[in-house]
Fold each of these.
Amino acid sequence: MGKKVIVVDDSSTIRRQLVETLSGAGYEVVEASDGVEGARVIDANADAAMVICDVNMPNKNGLEMLADIKANGKHAALPVVMLTTEGDPVLVQKAKSAGAKGWLVKPIKPDLLLATARKLAGAA
Amino acid sequence: MGSQHSVVFDQVIESSVVDCFSVRELALCPAEAVRPPAPYAEGAILTFISLFGEHLTGTLLLAVRPDLAEALSLAVGPGGETQAAHLDALAELSNELLGRIKNRLLPYGVTFQLGLPKALACAGFWLHTVTGETRRAHRFTSPRGDVWVWFDVVVGPDFRMLPFDESSAKCLPEGELVLF
């Protein structure tokens, strides 16, 4: 089994796309559909190598989830990349300040996604 | 809303819609809107997403034929066969579309927040806009039937659109990544 990547997005379409790309390259993918479930899944998967997280989600958005998990010391080193439709520099700066490792603007480019995973999580 | 705003909105919406579908390998051609919009005889998938800012508020609506939504969903990969998947694929497309519109309006000093997209299947529909206007209905032709987009926005008295200034807001380009 490859390195574990946690995908947090309320869109099943985006989760399918991420699973297709990452699993195809050998990564194990664990899914969550909002920030509340995402935080729970991250807590339950201490061996995760990376998180890819949407910003605009119900219940708890991605930036709120990011702040929560970074406040928990055990996830301080876990790389989190935000995946969103928006390129607003104000939001990008918020994510950086909250501890994100990157900001990826949709649409998803599989090659770029895999290059990011290899850089932050390591080879599958 | 002043005509200058409408022209910019129209240009941004048109380019954003064409680009959004182009990424999904579907070529759209802008066409003259018919008023009132004709209902889809074979049903439709309709998605809508709210936007709200200090000086403007409204909704983006996107409507396509069911087989187009199905094709978008199936193109993603396994698991796209159900109607729920078709609805989600179109909802996600509307989310991406409004994100592009926001990104492309930032250099004009226009900003807003996005709501969460919703999608539904319907036998047909008629649209009653908040403003009572239908002129911001955008129609696009495609090999899989017409695509309709409405950008139904109300602007407040203090709304201002600045001259285009790309340097004022260094928005990350679509499809790109920045690592910190």
Amino acid sequence: MAAIDPVTGELAHGTVAAETQQILTNMAELLEAAGSSLAKVVKVGVLIYSMLEYENMNSVYREFFPVDPPARTVCGAGLIGGHKVEIECVALA
Amino acid sequence: MTGRLLRGVIEPVNPKLNVSRNANLPHSPGIRVGDYIFLSGMGPVDPVTGGRNLGPIAEQIRPTLRNMTHMLESAGSGLHRIVKMTVVLADSRDFDEMNRVWREFFPTDPPARTTCTLQLSNGNGVEIECIALAGESPF
């Protein structure tokens, strides 16, 4: 998932911290709509445009997974659409 | 409904290999869910010192796969039970050397695998994650 404004549906480009916040907020909502939740996430893959921003992503990320966080891999990659962050997950239903 | 499946954290028996705990990172070393194990991306951590081994790529891949073996065995599984692996290299020129080391660890019926080149953390030349079958399920 990339950062999308849930009201307008537009791309919500911002800082790495802001995009991470928006993505995980949307991910939580999507999982809950399917009867799941962030607490049931098993594995996360995070792509960020530069690993120099690793801590900016982590500082927001840790607020969403305060206990027993999922397994995770983080890599730097060229992302399409001008996004700075893209996050995918595997979760229990 | 899969509500019967339980989700539990997997940790290495050797605390030096518990990178997320030692560096206070917001991920678990591994998660078991049902009969599957999902390991976080692992790198060439020295199991004695806990430091990084950033030597030649073969000398990064071997400890990474040994650490992965340790993680899986800590959960009653093993390398032979890996289903799918994702290998991230910092430099695509290391691909052939990576394959050479791979054959040492997976001489027959190797797991499904995807390899790509991306930026890695901590100066790692390689990072590997996997999905494996667990041992006998306690759940």
Amino acid sequence: MKLSYEQVKHIAWLARLGLSEAEVEKFSLQLSNILENFDILKQIDTTNVPPATHSIPLQNVFREDEAAKSYPQSEVLANAPRQEESCFKVQPILE
Amino acid sequence: MDYETVIGLEVHAQLLTKSKMFCSCGTDYVSAPPNTHVCPICLGMPGVLPVINKKAVEYTVMTALALNCTIPKSTKFDRKNYCYPDLMKGYQISQYDAPIGRQGWLTISSNGSKKRINITRVHLEEDVSKLWHREDYSLIDVNRSGVPLMEIVSEPEISSPEEARDYLVMLHTILRYLGVSTCNMEEGSFRCDANVSIRPKGSSKLLAKVEVKNMNSFKAVYQAMEYESKRQRSVLEKGGELVQETRGWVDEKGITVSQRGKEYADDYRYFPEPDLPPLVFDKAWIEKIRAKLPELPEARKERFMAQYGLPLYDANILTGSRTLADYFESCLELMDKGKAKLIRNWLLGDFSRLLNATNTDIETTQVSPEHLVEMLNLVDKGTISGPAAKAVFEEMFYSGKRASAIVTEKKLSQISDATKVREMVKKVIANNAKAVSDYKSGKQQALTFITGQVMRTTRGRANPSLVKEILIQELGGKKIA
């Protein structure tokens, strides 16, 4: 199954990536290759296998509801490229 | 053409846990400076591992049970991917196809008739950061991000603004009874979005679905629903076409405005959260949570009516908050059950008046049920008069002192000595010749006036029935019924 030009553009948009026409073509092939591998996996008969969402045999991993100290504000903001009024400053968000 | 309104409500309630959903940051962020309740986990740093808050799951299960939902044997969390900076990770941990509760219902009473509103799902997710939009940039405070958030979705079965409000009030009351959320609408711990559409009466096909956001009070929800169902009808009547869109409620103007069209279906690319192993519910644990469920508002209301002979209106108010209902019943445990109406009168009368005047809550009042009952017993024994009781209660309310102490301190004990009362009655009669002659010429109100004068001279301490009795004797025994 080959991904269409529109599908690749849509996926790129969801990830907020700007792709050139050449890149769309390139990734269309690469992504299609990945999907083809899933087609191979699909050939396995899983009729009697319950669906799994996780690959490790763990369940019910909880923590008790106890609050602990958070990080100092200065450390929280240490990696922020831009900050103002102790907040992260980002580009204007348009709905 | 005749149209009917169809409303579905989506409620988000923050859970009343001490720590966040997936990390140990505290949840008491409301008045904290920005970015002080934050750690690498809620900041979405690479390589961190979220761990599920057990209490949050317990609260969600409890809510699902209270809303008559089915709890699955197992459930899981999913990543909801979207591009908006209110979550640092770039996705929200939520639940997609395996919510903790599904197919429940709650009962509302609108205009005196009961209606069951089905609940589609109850699921658990994390709250998002707070954003402030400035002219050409936005600011992010991550404090709220990661606070446990429960989402409760109703079926589109609500058919009027009244029903929408009644549904919300009922849900709000139930969550407060369960103690799982503060449900503070002003602080945003109880939020509501609505899907509103109209359709030709009797048709099953909905026209364009409009999502309304930004309603911050029960009143706003009512008004927004009313506005929106009228607006949609008028668009059609004018020959226009309805579009699927998101609209925001503007409280000051009382209107909704279009925020964005829904040209594309949302594309959240949900997938199972690989960092969180699935939950498998132990039946014993679920039953343990079920056993903790309190008597819910609807059941309690009906019991109040049957057990204490209260009218629907009173039972409704008294069971409107669990604290008030508990207070009422604590008083009755200390008194004769036949005193239900007396307690009701105090709670809904003077007590409510003082709580309103001071903008306080019965939860934090200084007057305990024991103290109130002690005061009522003083009235019963004749130690203080009814009017003096009001003054005593007010003093109790403000100072936290007990009634007996106030009575001694302020010399408020009732005057039931007939000689003393007669003396005062005579004095008042002598000073109110006009009222006396009015009374003698048949004016009934005059007696009330003279009684009032006697009570006034004693600052409410005279025994009112004794005053009346002696007054009538002194005025010549002419008793007016």
